[in-house]
């Protein structure tokens, strides 16, 4: 069996150091991956004059699996966002963001285990039809939701729930007010839910969902929702388990997937050996699960759980006083 080649985008700011940590972990657990390093974001802009060079796009298309650090999209450029562009270009319609409680973090809750499945290509967030008129007095944007887009994301969520032996999928919407777009999403989601009698389906309006997540997050299992709501809710979920440093994300399409840290590039601490690499390590765990390497994924997760619970060489955001390299060393020892 030939070994899998992974496209690696180290990213900007703290990206290179935390991605390097994740790769050491993957190698230590014996994944035998080949890595093809390519650039995107500010790093690529400086070397190639482009935020997303064609060579990078070619590598993503060729290898089908990408591990990515945080990227900086410069403010005020013509480019909405590198992430949005990648999702559209490779039709990565599903954004999967799991959060789990780790003992030893400064989280407000325990026993949280929620997966947010977010539609990744349509709706308000996609930035379609943005115009500013009347010399800046009026702005417009367009939200387009399709039956096909809604159906495939809800199917994805129910299939995930079934595969992971989850009990419940909560469909989050705003169909009471946005009767056209959110209404179509909800109507389609109800039809899909009927095909999965083994999984409990419930519905919740997005503002109530926010309140419920704060008051009683343990009631949630899998959440499925549209692009903009999913963006907001998945960050809220990250806040329940100690912040974005503990939150990975996967962008999954039919035959291509990008696994990433969902937080920013934190230029203020770049190069200072302070960053917590957990998000990219957890994204690697998602990647291994996607590749069917569940045993290796479990080993990494167990090691990470132990490092954080024991407080052995943890980073400042976890209440420790150590940096990226010490944290990584603690991980490698356990593996």
TrEMBL record:
Family named by the database record: Belongs to the isocitrate and isopropylmalate dehydrogenases family.
Top-level taxon in the UniProt lineage: Bacteria
Keywords: Oxidoreductase
One of the record's GO molecular function terms: isocitrate dehydrogenase (NAD+) activity
Enzymatic class: oxidoreductase
Full protein name: Isocitrate dehydrogenase
Swiss-Prot/TrEMBL GO biological process terms: isocitrate metabolic process; tricarboxylic acid cycle
The enzyme's E.C. designation: 1.1.1.41
Domain Isopropylmalate dehydrogenase-like: 5-331
Record-linked InterPro entries: IsoCit/isopropylmalate_DH_CS (IPR019818), IsoPropMal-DH-like_dom (IPR024084)
SMART domains membership: Iso_dh (SM01329)
Gene3D superfamilies, A to Z: Isopropylmalate Dehydrogenase
Species, as recorded: Rheinheimera mesophila
Cited PANTHER family: DECARBOXYLATING DEHYDROGENASES-ISOCITRATE, ISOPROPYLMALATE, TARTRATE, ISOCITRATE DEHYDROGENASE [NAD] SUBUNIT ALPHA, MITOCHONDRIAL
């Amino acid at each position: 069996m030939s070994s899998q080649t992974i496209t690696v985008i180290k990213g900007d700011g703290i990206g290179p150091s935390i991605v390097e940590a994740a790769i050491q972990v993957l190698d230590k657990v014996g994944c035998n991956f080949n890595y093809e390093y390519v650039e995107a974001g500010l790093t690529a802009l400086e070397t190639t004059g482009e935020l997303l060079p064609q060579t990078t796009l070619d590598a993503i298309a060729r290898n089908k699996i990408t591990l990515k650090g945080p990227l900086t999209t410069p403010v005020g450029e013509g480019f909405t966002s590198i992430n949005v562009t990648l999702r559209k270009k490779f039709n990565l319609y599903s954004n999967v963001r799991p959060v789990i409680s780790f003992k030893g973090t400064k989280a407000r809750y325990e026993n949280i285990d929620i997966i947010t499945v977010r539609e990744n290509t349509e709706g308000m967030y996609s930035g379609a039809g943005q115009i500013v008129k009347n010399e800046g007095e009026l702005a417009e944007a367009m939200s387009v939701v399709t039956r096909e887009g809604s159906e495939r994301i809800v199917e994805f969520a129910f299939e995930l729930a079934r595969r992971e032996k989850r009990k419940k999928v909560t469909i989050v919407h705003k169909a009471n007010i946005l009767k056209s777009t959110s209404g179509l999403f909800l109507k389609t989601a109800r039809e899909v839910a009927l095909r999965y009698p083994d999984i409990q389906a419930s519905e919740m309006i997005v503002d109530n969902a926010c309140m419920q997540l704060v008051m009683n997050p343990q009631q949630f299992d899998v959440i499925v929702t549209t692009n903009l709501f999913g963006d907001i809710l998945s960050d809220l979920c990250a806040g329940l388990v100690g912040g974005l440093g503990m939150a990975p994300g996967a962008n999954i399409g039919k035959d291509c997937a990008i696994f990433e840290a969902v937080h920013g590039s934190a230029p203020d601490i770049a190069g200072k050996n302070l960053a917590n690499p957990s998000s990219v390590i957890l994204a690697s765990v998602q990647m291994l699960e996607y590749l069917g390497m569940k045993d290796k994924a479990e080993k990494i997760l167990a090691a990470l759980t132990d490092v954080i619970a024991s407080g052995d060489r943890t980073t400042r955001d976890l209440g420790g006083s150590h940096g990226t390299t010490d944290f990584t060393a603690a991980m490698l020892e356990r593996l």
